[in-house]
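pls design
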C-alpha cells in the first residue's frame, strides 16, 4: 500500500487565503490611495492644471475646480471598459496574471501624474495630459476590483466570505485614509507656496514604491484553480430578481449586472460624498482651511475603516441584506442633519468630529458586506466580469460624477445641502434594490 496516498494534502490552503488577502489588499490600497490623494488635492490641482497663469486667485474660482472634478469623472467612465477588458481576462486566463497587469498599469499612470508639467509650463496641454493619465488609471481600476474580490471570496473558508471580501473595502478605506493623512501632513509641514509649487507631487510619486511592493506580492502568488475547472457546486434555482439571477445566459447576466448597479449605487454615492468630496466642499462652500478640511476627511475615513470588518463579519452571521439595507437607510436619515451640523458655526469641534466619524462608519456598513454580496450574484465563469462591470458602472455614474455634480450644482444654486440630498437620494433608490437580497445568500456556496 502506498502510505503517501493516505496522507492529507499539505496545509497550503490554510496559508494561501492569507497570502491572497495580502496580495489582493496591496493593489487595492495603492489604487485608492491615489484616488484619495486626487480628491484631497482637488483645489491644488485646479490651480496648477486648470487655471490660466494670469487668472486671479489661487484657483480662479469654481470653474477650474469643476474642470478638475470632470477629469476625476473621466477616470470613472473608463472603469467599465477596464472592467470588461480585464474582467474577461481574469475569467479566461486567471486572476493572478490579470491583477499583476492592472497594478503595473496603475502604478505607471500615478507616478507619471507626479512628473507632469503644469499649466504654467505646458500651457493648455497640461490638463489634457492629466486627463489622459486619469483615463489610464480608470482602465486599470476597472480591472482591479473584479479580480481582487473574486480572488478573495473564492479563497475564503466556509462562512467567511463577508469577512474576506471586507478586506477589499478595508484597503479602500486605508488607501483613502493614507492619501488624506499624507495630504494633511504636507499641508502642515509646507507653506502654501511650497505645497502649490512642488509639494503636491510627493504623494503621487510615493505610488511608485507602493506599487512595486504590490507587484512583488502578486507575482509571488500561486494561481488558484481557474473558474472552468473549479468543482461544480449545485444550488437550488434562484427566484426571479434574486441575487442568483446571473446563473443563466446573457439576459440573466445582464439583469444581475443591472441589479448589482442598483445595490451598489448608494455605497458609491455616499462613499464619495463623505470621504472624497468633503475636503473641497468644506473649503469652497463653508470657508474651512485646507488643513481643517483634510483633518475632517481623515476622521471620516477613520470611521469608515473602523466599521468595515465588523460589518463584513456581521453579514456572515445575519446576512448581507440587514446590514447593507440598514446602512443605506441610515444615510437617508442622517445625511441632512450631518451637513446642517457641519454648517452650524455654533457647533463645537468635538461634535463636528463625531459627526464625520459617524458618516464614515455608516458608509462602512455598505462597504463591508458589499464585495461578498456582489461575488454571490455571479457564477464562477463570469464572476470577475459581472461583479467588476456592476461595480464600475455604479461608481462611474454615482462616484465619478459626485464631485462634479455637487460642486457645479452648489455653485449654481447656492444650496449648501446639495451633497446631503445627493447621498440620501442615491441611498433611497439603492435600498429598494438591496431589499431584493435573499436572506440566506451568505450561507449558500459560490456557484
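designed seq:
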Amino acid at each position: 500500500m502506498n502510505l503517501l496516498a493516505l496522507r492529507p494534502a499539505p496545509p497550503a490552503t490554510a496559508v494561501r487565503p492569507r497570502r491572497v488577502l495580502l496580495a489582493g489588499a496591496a493593489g487595492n490600497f495603492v489604487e485608492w490611495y491615489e484616488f484619495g490623494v486626487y480628491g484631497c488635492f482637488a483645489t491644488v490641482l485646479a490651480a496648477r492644471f486648470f487655471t490660466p497663469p494670469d487668472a486671479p486667485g489661487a484657483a480662479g474660482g469654481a470653474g477650474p475646480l469643476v474642470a478638475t472634478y470632470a477629469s476625476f469623472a473621466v477616470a470613472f467612465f473608463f472603469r467599465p471598459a477596464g472592467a470588461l477588458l480585464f474582467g474577461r481576462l481574469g475569467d479566461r486566463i486567471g486572476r493572478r496574471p490579470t491583477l499583476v497587469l492592472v497594478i503595473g498599469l496603475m502604478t505607471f499612470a500615478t507616478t507619471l501624474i507626479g512628473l507632469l508639467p503644469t499649466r504654467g509650463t505646458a500651457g493648455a496641454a497640461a490638463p489634457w495630459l492629466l486627463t489622459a493619465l486619469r483615463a489610464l488609471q480608470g482602465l486599470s481600476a476597472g480591472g482591479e476590483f473584479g479580480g481582487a474580490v473574486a480572488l478573495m471570496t473564492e479563497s475564503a473558508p466556509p462562512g467567511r466570505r463577508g469577512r474576506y471580501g471586507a478586506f477589499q473595502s478595508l484597503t479602500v478605506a486605508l488607501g483613502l485614509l493614507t492619501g488624506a493623512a499624507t495630504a494633511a501632513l504636507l499641508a502642515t509641514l509646507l507653506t502654501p507656496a511650497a505645497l502649490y509649487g512642488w509639494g503636491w507631487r510627493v504623494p503621487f510619486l510615493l505610488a511608485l514604491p507602493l506599487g512595486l511592493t504590490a507587484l512583488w506580492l502578486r507575482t509571488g502568488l500561486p494561481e488558484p484553480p481557474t473558474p472552468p475547472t473549479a468543482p461544480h457546486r449545485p444550488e437550488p434555482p434562484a427566484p426571479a430578481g434574486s441575487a442568483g439571477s446571473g446563473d443563466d445566459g446573457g439576459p440573466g447576466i445582464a439583469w444581475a449586472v443591472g441589479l448589482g448597479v442598483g445595490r451598489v449605487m448608494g455605497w458609491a454615492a455616499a462613499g464619495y460624498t463623505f470621504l472624497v468630496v468633503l475636503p473641497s466642499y468644506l473649503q469652497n462652500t463653508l470657508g474651512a482651511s485646507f488643513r481643517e478640511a483634510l483633518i475632517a476627511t481623515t476622521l471620516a475615513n477613520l470611521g469608515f475603516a473602523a466599521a468595515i470588518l465588523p460589518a463584513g463579519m456581521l453579514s456572515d452571521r445575519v446576512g448581507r441584506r440587514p446590514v447593507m439595507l440598514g446602512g443605506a437607510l441610515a444615510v437617508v436619515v442622517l445625511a441632512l442633519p450631518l451637513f446642517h451640523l457641519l454648517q452650524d458655526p455654533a457647533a463645537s469641534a468635538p461634535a463636528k468630529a463625531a459627526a464625520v466619524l459617524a458618516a464614515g462608519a455608516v458608509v462602512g456598513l455598505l462597504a463591508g458586506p458589499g464585495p461578498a454580496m456582489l461575488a454571490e450574484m455571479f457564477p464562477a465563469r463570469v464572476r470577475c466580469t459581472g461583479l467588476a462591470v456592476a461595480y464600475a458602472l455604479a461608481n462611474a455614474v454615482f462616484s465619478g460624477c459626485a464631485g462634479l455634480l455637487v460642486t457645479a450644482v452648489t455653485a449654481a444654486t447656492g444650496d449648501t445641502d446639495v451633497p446631503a440630498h445627493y447621498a440620501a437620494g442615491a441611498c433611497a433608490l439603492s435600498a429598494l434594490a438591496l431589499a431584493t437580497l435573499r436572506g440566506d445568500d451568505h450561507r449558500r456556496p459560490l456557484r
